[in-house]
Amino acid sequence: MISLGFLTVYEYQEHDYVTEIAKRAHHYGISVYRFTPLSIDPLTEKVNGERFDDESQSWISCMFDIPSLLYDRCFYRSDDRSKKSKPIVQWLKNRPDVTFLGHGFPNKWELYQSVSNHPILSFYTPKTAQLHSANDLTRMLRNEKAVICKPEQGSRGRGIYIVKKAGKQLHVIDAFGDTILHVNTRQTLNHWLDSLHSTSPYLIQPLFSFQTDEGNPFDLRFLLQKNEHGQWVERGRGVRIGNTGTFVANISAGATIYPFSEWVHHLSPHKRLLIADGIDTILRSLPPYLEQQFGPLFELGLDIGVTGDGAVWIIDMNSKPGRKIVTETAPHESETLYHSPLRYCQFLAKEVNIQ
């Protein structure tokens, strides 16, 4: 039997997802375990976790060896558990007897640096800089009316701020459209940046107008996965539309998901062709390039922004994406999401000769 371990920082994260995977695993000759990095005994290297039992269709607590294949769904925050878990996962990645379905990404800065060096993808990558000081901010604002500040390790739209020029002032606005600060002096700006950096390193980019005709923020979300032959396939695409007056289209911030076909249907033929060309180029070029730069992947979530003139931009790349873009726009495809990790495990098992 092939052993697959589902790895999360907290014990019951994504419980329903892994249970649905485990219910189907016996058809593939796979035993499914779930555990956290802190469940591993550092002396014996045994795991105190749970195994899915086919007869009872439930999880059973047990001790077991570290599974040969690991599905990493660890999301790290600033808490102690995350800080302790991260080096353990890195230790697991360095073990020759363990194969990860996907290795994940570094921080957003390294991602943007890498993609901006690609001869084609660089044309779809926003100008990005690290935000170390007020000089970094004012330098970009010389050529832009507004910039967006993003935490290097951020997700779900958390910690995002907009800085706009307003006469001789700067206005700092949060992701929900509320002005939180009027900046009149360099001292005020430095004080705000100090408070920002106390939580995370930050990046800055020009603020593009990714808005619907009604003024709502929106982006396109794509979910890609490897199939049973180790080839990239698209599982779903959709449009996320945020609330009026906000700057993010994240589901956690109240955005609504719509089928991609509904959105693209309202575009002019010329704009539709222009956008399709950019999307196809990104989907074809980005996944293999990211693997070349950062190691093997199993799945990939892409957020793409589209401006009013049809220009396409890469907003974000996620190696541990959610699945709502499929479950809400094409629920009949949900079953595929439970089988795809198992099919890819079979492919990997053959590649690394796991019995």
Output the number of helix runs: 9
Strands side by side in the biggest sheet? 4-3-2-1-5-6
Overall structural class, as computed from helix and strand content, comes to alpha+beta
Biggest β-sheet, characterized? 6 strands, mixed
How many domains? The number is: 3
Quaternary class:
single chain
CATH architecture descriptor name of the largest domain: 2-Layer Sandwich
Give the helix proportion (percent range): 25-40%
CATH homologous superfamily (4th level) name of the largest domain: ATP-grasp fold, B domain
Shape: globular
Rounded to an integer in angstroms, the radius of gyration calculated over CA atoms is: 22 Å
Per DSSP E runs of 2 or more residues, the count of β-strands stands at 17
CATH C-level of the largest domain = Alpha Beta
Query: What integer is the average pLDDT?
Result: 93
Quote the CATH topology of the largest domain: D-amino Acid Aminotransferase, Chain A, domain 1
Order of helices and strands: EHEEEEHEHEHEEEEHEEEEHHEEHH
* Share in β-strands: 25-35%
InterPro entries: YheC/D
Organism: Thermaerobacillus caldiproteolyticus
Protein name: YheC/YheD family protein
Pfam families: ATPgrasp_YheCD
Features:
D-amino Acid Aminotransferase, Chain A, domain 1; 355 residues; 29% strand; 3 domains; Rossmann fold; 6-stranded mixed beta sheet; 6-stranded antiparallel beta sheet; alpha+beta
Describe the structure.
With 355 residues, this protein is α+β, with helices and mostly antiparallel strands. It folds into three domains: 2-100, Rossmann fold (3-Layer(aba) Sandwich); 108-124 and 211-347, ATP-grasp fold, B domain (D-amino Acid Aminotransferase, Chain A, domain 1), CATH 3.30.470; 129-206, no CATH class. The protein contains nine helices and 17 strands. The strands form three sheets. Strands 4-3-2-1-5-6 form a six-stranded mixed β-sheet, covered by helices on one side. It has a six-stranded antiparallel β-sheet with strand order 7-12-8-9-10-11, with helices on one face. Strands 15-14-13-16-17 form a five-stranded antiparallel β-sheet. Strand 13 and strand 14 form a beta hairpin. Helix 1 crosses helix 9. The N and C termini lie close together (6 Å).
